[in-house]
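Sync notes, pocket subgroup
Present: LS, DG
LS reminded everyone that the earlier model was apo-only. Rerun requested with adenosine monophosphate included. Inputs:
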Amino acid sequence: MKLLVIGSGGREHAIAKKFTESPLVKTVFCAKGNIGMIQDGIQLVDIAENDHDSLIQFVKAEQIAWTFVGPELSLFEGITDAFETAGLKIFGPSKKAADLECSKQFAKDLMKKYAIPTASYKTFEEYKLAVSYVESKGVPIVIKADGLAAGKGVIIAVTMKEATDALRHMLLEGKYATGKPKVVIEEYLEGEEFSLFALVNGSNYYYAGVAQDHKRAYDGDEGPNTGGMGAYSPVPQVSKERIQEVMETVIKPTVNAMVAEGCPFKGVIYAGLMMTNKGLKVIEYNARFGDPETQVLMHQLASDLAQIIDDILNEKTPLIKMHTDRYTLGIVVSAEGYPEFPMSNISIPQMTTKGTGCNIYVAGMKKVETNLVSSGGRILLVEAQGTTLQEAQKKAYRYLEDNPICHTYYRMDIGEKAIQFGENKKDPKNKVLFN
Ligand code: AMP
Ligand code: GLY
């Protein structure tokens, strides 16, 4: 069969590459894709991700079996609704169901209504009321712009000034707002953060792995929030029992709630979770795979992703198996100044991974004449595997040391917390479980 992937980042590169490995698949197209995909045999389609009419025409002309949606923006723009109206199969939620990610207020209200554990919160449109609320609660406190902000619309305010500055930017100046500015103000949660992925169709849901991202820009979880600076999978701090708990207390009630609310979910539910000392809490939902989590997750998935999605779309039970004998770790290389003011058009040298045991997934790179230059804040991800997390980490960092790129940076501590956890593990019952 022929498949189409929507998107153009590292996540879509990893998904499309995984599809090419399936014996069921003849051709994988990606709209618009990126230059890094070509060497993996993925066919780039020069149609904008929001040009639904042209995409539909293309899918019909090429007789594509189904389409997989990578980014949240496409879901927010209603690509699933447009494709389904045209009678085409697509894996991704409807615009309404994508509110699970696209509207923080929808997600928080849903969790409250269906008793899904999350941080306490209140929603505000009025600057003065929001400031009084923050004053009454004190800091640290979390302020989130309602709407899509590529991971950047969340401010963890440690001082009152940071809190009022964030409220001013979001409510008075409309930073990140697509409609009327609105914020969700949340209790600050402390603990170990991880992401769990589930593949969903209506009331059916299937576990598809865990990963840990590194959201802050700098080492030691310092600096501004980003789209993600590196990831690894599996997560030794997350036991099999914990995964079962998430499936039972978060994923199951969420999919049932979406059915009950009249907007059944089809696609990927990505639960951002925190293990706090008051128990497990949902930080956020995303309605698609994570970037850079997907790049590492695809290497941990032992089953055929094309077969899995085909089965789910045809209401059959898929076989989803994860590798249990290895770790994958990926490090994002970002442009100087990312996330606030990323430098553009940074010259990128030709890089080869031959003989290194590493893979590269391109996120933001283009060709200008014969030269490669950066085209976005996150440029690429270098990823490696190992039988231990240390081995994967060492390989990936060695590659980056051997292949420096001027005017870029990356975090030096991807995977470090998990490695420390492994070394400090004192409780023999809390043994590291592969998942
Ligand atoms: P979100 O876009 O909601 O995922 O938030 C981005 C990041 O901000 C999360 O991955 C967390 O690291 C952090 N964050 C969000 N909400 C909270 C919270 N209530 N307490 C602590 N950290 C949070
Ligand atoms: N890595 C975070 C995200 O994809 O939202």
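DG: The longest strand covers residues 266-276.
LS: Residues 426-435 have pLDDT under 50 and may be disordered.
Action: DG to write up.
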